[in-house]
Structure formats: structure tokens, C-alpha cells
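User: Before I run my own analysis I want an independent prediction to cross-check against. Here's the chain; please return only the C-alpha cells and, at the end, one sentence I can use as a sanity check.
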Amino acid sequence: MFVSRARPASALVLVTALAAVGLGPAAGPAMAANIPVGAGSYSDTRPAGTSGPTTNTGTPVTPKLTAAARNKPVPTNDWWSSLAFQRYGDNPYSTPMYGHPLTYQATAAGLQVGYPTTPTVSGDGRQYEYAHKADLTLGLTGLNSPDTKADSWSDWTVTPYWSDGTRTLRTTIGHGLPFVYAKGTGGDARVTTAATPEVFADQGNVLGITVAGHHYALFAPTGSDWTVAGSALTAGLGGRDYFSLAVLPSRDALATYRKYAYSFVTGSKVSWSATGGTVRATYSLTTAPQEGTETGTLQALYRHQWLNTTDALTPYTYVSPRGTMKVRESTSFTTGQQSAAVLPALPPSSGVDRARLKTHLDEVANAADPFSGAVDTYWTGKALGKLAQLVPLADQIGETATRDKLIGLLKGRLEQWFTAGGANEFSYDTSWKTLTGYPASYGSDTELNDHHFHYSYYVYAAAIVAQYDQAWAAGSAWGGMVKTLVRDAANPSRDDSQFPFLRGFDVYAGHSWASGHQGFAAGNNQESSSESTNLSAALVLWGSATGDTELRDLGSYLLTTESEAIGQYWFDADQEVFPASFGHDTVGMVWGSGGAYSTWWTANPEEIHGINALPLTGGSLHLSREKDAIKRNLAEMVRENGGPAVEWRDILWEFEALADPAAAKAKWDAGNAGYSPEAGESRAHTYHWINTLNSVGAPDATVTGSIPTSAVFAKGGVRTYVAHNFESAARTVTFSDGTTLTVPARSTATK
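Assistant: C-alpha cells:
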């Protein structure tokens, strides 16, 4: 959400702005035009007086790519985006990049490599970091490149490129890769260590060294020899162009790692399926032997991955900001998880008084300005989300006039944004290959921040409209613009020439990143993980409502995967990730280097704890997987706050209801008369949410249904089964405990 509203006004200052130099204006089209998409349109040039991507001082920038990568959609919002997005005028290389277990930073001489294993806690105990610190720099003798560019990339790997006119260097790095693979010409292989290394193994072309307590292996072509002169280690390539290094989990692992030193990783790809209540994903590497015939490799799995795989793992492990990483000896592994449930709304229940709900619905539907003055993409999105939440609730109690009025409000504002040339529009940037809404907010234009946050609300609102009006959602009508927003924020295609694959979502890290440029000493970051999953849940609903099974299943994969990552890395559900010295049970922000008990705009505990819960919708049920973590989270909020919530009490009540509905209802009953709803909330929705869960019980994630739009709730040993059928004929949903539920066409059923 607020990822670059401002630098934190606390001790959590994570980066100092560098002085910028002119980088030249971004190229624009010769003449502005509106691009029709069904009944809607977007523009191919920005509105007058607005900006696209810039340095931190406002100088326009274009992607920093080699000729081989030019005109390809750039995956901004990634762990390595600073290679392509030069945020600071005097740093044409990169900021620190956190691949895990290794960290990297590009310099004129090549690639700095580090392996941070000891956390630091700073900012009055609010931030923990495994910050990048170079153990060594990999390069070529004499290399002095004026910049570093992105040469190629795949799902979780990237190849930076250096050239000084005489020497060229390419390295391939990635999440989970203990190796750095180098291709160089014009000079000898050179590794410069931060301190004089201890050589523990010298096998000619294979050298084992220890630097700063970390063990590395250096691999030159067979027939070459490493020469050690203080902190400079060099090897002639003998007419060949390859060498590599690896960080070793222990010195005795050298023989195993040597086996794979010349099997260079050339690409990475995830594939997924979502069927019968289970999401499966396979993470595969492609390799090419530089000498010999070995094509296998080693890769380190994050905690959210190894918890959910049955594939064999070695005893080798690494330290990371995400807890222990475990090593697999293979080019692929597969994870399997129970799919996260998504509903258009909580089901009808006896706990909701219809007359009272109608009164609260009328407060919103009849407001003088239901959009509360919103004009930019983010706040308009929040308002759309608030109204969309209420449509199914009005339908549940037979208030069809209110339902249709709310749908009309949604259509009107969406169509306004989906039509170029007015006060609000979306504009396509041909250099960055991105779609930005104007008026923009929180750096969604100049930094390409937060597109997945902002657009989640538009897709969610459109999905609710589609549930009741399929003609409106057709591609020939307004659905084409909805899918264009999806292509920008969460494109399922790797072959789309207009937008990158999954812009915001890092498939290997298991969650999204919010900063478009990644230009921080701490790497990239994400604050509001729940607004990220709002997009994933919206994809499930939109895909289900429109019959787009590709987007539906993509949404299930993204939501189920990120749900596990949120539980582990934001909420420390198993209490195995955060360092013992950190002293917090949750973080407001995850960084490449660690995590922070903070937000971008405030140190108020209510918002630190609430920002990873809002908006509470039928796509938030996955949070209830970790009920103990929710209880610890909220207990910490009360301690840090010096008492119960005051400002965001509705968000925190709803969050608590996912773990302890009775406790949440007691708070609602005592305090609902005297609070102001959070900007994306309403009394109607909060009343319905808390009282429904108090009636049917908290979500029971141990049982899943055969379609993604199904869920189970449990209270006092009694389960309530719920499913929504978007199809035109009745269907039977089978749950994992054997229960079946027949659901009429285009309706919700309970049992």
C-alpha cells in the first residue's frame, strides 16, 4: 500500500538518497492515441503534467538493458530490479540484491557476493537485518565497467552484464542458488576477497577458501590454476570463457559442490495446477554443462517451500532472513498445499439481524459521496472495495434495489477509469511496458510501486459486478480493461510483448514486492501483504465469474503460496524465522534483508498490525490457518499500543474474528457505537463479518472443497460448509472430509 509515501520518520531510515545526475528523458510516442479495449480504452501517452519513472530527484529514466534484452518487458518489482531501474543518478550498477542464501551488489569491477549469517537489530529494536556485506567480488582482471545492465532473466534468476570496451562479463544469479555462474572475455578470472582468505583446499582449478567465517569454492576451467596473492585470486581461462563460485554449507561439502560447478543454470520456471482443493507447483531449473556431461545442480529451498514438499533434501542448510534454507540435489522440486478458500462474501447466518444490516447498508449506499472524495488510483480502489463488499450482503437479505444501486456505483466509477481522455485514466508506457493509472499515488508512476495493491481493488470490484452482470464483464464490453490491468500486475504469460510475467509476484520468494525499482540498501520490500493477496483472491473471483480458468487457477496458486509466506515471514507462525534478539511477534514490512516492526507512514501499533490484514474480505479466510499467530499478533498490539485499538478497531476486530469470533463480538458489542470506520471499511460489512463468524465459527482450513470458491467454518464441533457456484448449472462440491454440497447455479449454498 504506502510503500513509498515517504521515508520512515523514525530510526528506520533504510537508505540515504544519492545525488542524481541527468540521465536523459524517456522516449515517448510521436503522437498521443487512445487504444480501444472492448468498450473501454487506455492512452499511449501520459496526461499533461504527469510523470513516469524517474530518479529520486525527478530525472526521467528508461530501462537499463543490453541490446539483447531491449524491448522485452522488464520485470520491475523484483528482488533484482535495481539492475534495470536506475533510481540514483550516481549509481549505474545496482543497490544490494538479496537472492538468499547469497547477497549481491554490482560494481564497476564486477559482482560483490556476500553470505550474511548474523542478524543485527536496530531502530530501537524495530528492525532485524541480515544486511549485505561483501565477502568477495567476482570479476575479470582489469574490469572497470561504466555501468551494469540486465542482459536476460527468467522466473527467479537474472544475468547482469558488464563491459568496459575490452572486457565483458555476465553472471547468472538467483534465489536459492548457492552458485554464481560467470562468463567472461578479455581478461583472466579474478576474485578479490574482503580480507586475506584462508585456503583450505587447493586442487589447481578448484580452490576452497574461508572469508569472514564463510566457506567458498572457486572453480576455473579444467587445466587452469588459481593463483593467490593476498586478497587477489586469479585464474587464466585458457581460451575458455567460464568460471564459477559457490558458497559452501561446510568445508566437507566441497566434493559435492564440485560435481555441479560446471553445470551452469541457464533458466528457471515455475508451473502450477489447482485442482480438487490442492495447489501444486513445480520449480525447475534448466542447465547447460560447460565441460563434462553433468546437468544436475543444487538449490536451496525457503522455509515455505520445504515445509510443503515431500521431495528428498540433503543434510546441507543455509542461514537466511527467512529462516533455515534446505538444499536439494536436483534441478526441480514440487510443493503441494491445500488451496486457500475464497468466497464472494461470508454466508448468510442467524447471527445477522436483517433490519440492522439494512440500516448500515443504507448509510453507505445513500451517502452524499460514496467514494469519499477519492481521485487517485489507490484511494479510488479503497472506495471501490468498500462498496463491492456490500453488494453480496444486500443480495443476501433481499435488498435488490440497494444491491443494484451499489453495482451501478461500481460500474460508473470503473467505466470512468476504463475510458481514456477524462479526469481519470490508465496510460501505457512503451519504454517500461507498464500501465499506470492517473492521478497516481504513492509512487505508482515515478517508482512503479504498488500496482498489485492498487489494481487489486479494481479487479475485485469488477469480479463482484461480473457475478451479477456477465454481459458487462465480457471482453467486448468492460472485461477487456479488467484483463489489461491484470496483465500489468499479475500477467500469467511469459510471451506477452506488452507486459512482464507476474510483475509483482516473486514466485520463488513466495510473495510479492512493492517497490518498482528495489533501490534500497535493504533490498526490496512489501508492507501490505494482505493487499497483495486481495489481488490473488480477486483473480479467483474474476476467473470464476467469467469462466477464465487460467486466471482462476493463477489466483489460487498466488493466494495459497503467499498465504504460507505471510504466515512464516510476516507473522512468524512457527516462531522459527525471526531472530531471538528481535523481540517482536510480527512485522509490518518484509525486506530483502529481514523485517521491520514499522510501516512507511506511522509507528502506530494499530496500523503496524492492521496493515497486513486489510481489506478483510472473503479472500482473507486463509489468515485463519494460523490462529495462534493471530492471537499473539493482537496481544502484542495491545502491549505496544498501551491498550485496545482506537483508530483501526474495526480492522483488528475483524482480524481477531478469524481466530476467536466470540472475543471479537464482545469488542464489537462494547465499542461499535463510537468509532469511525477505516477508509476501506463500513459498519455494514464489519457488523456482518463479526456476527456471521460468531454464528458459524472461525474458518476451518483443515478441510477444503473441490472448487476454489468454497470454505468450511467450525464452532463447537459443528462444521458449516459453504460454496458459491458461478456456473449456469447446479454442481456438487466435494469436501476433503467426504462431505458433499449441491449448489444451485449462480448462487451460494450452505450445509
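Sanity check: The first strand starts at residue 34 and ends at 37.
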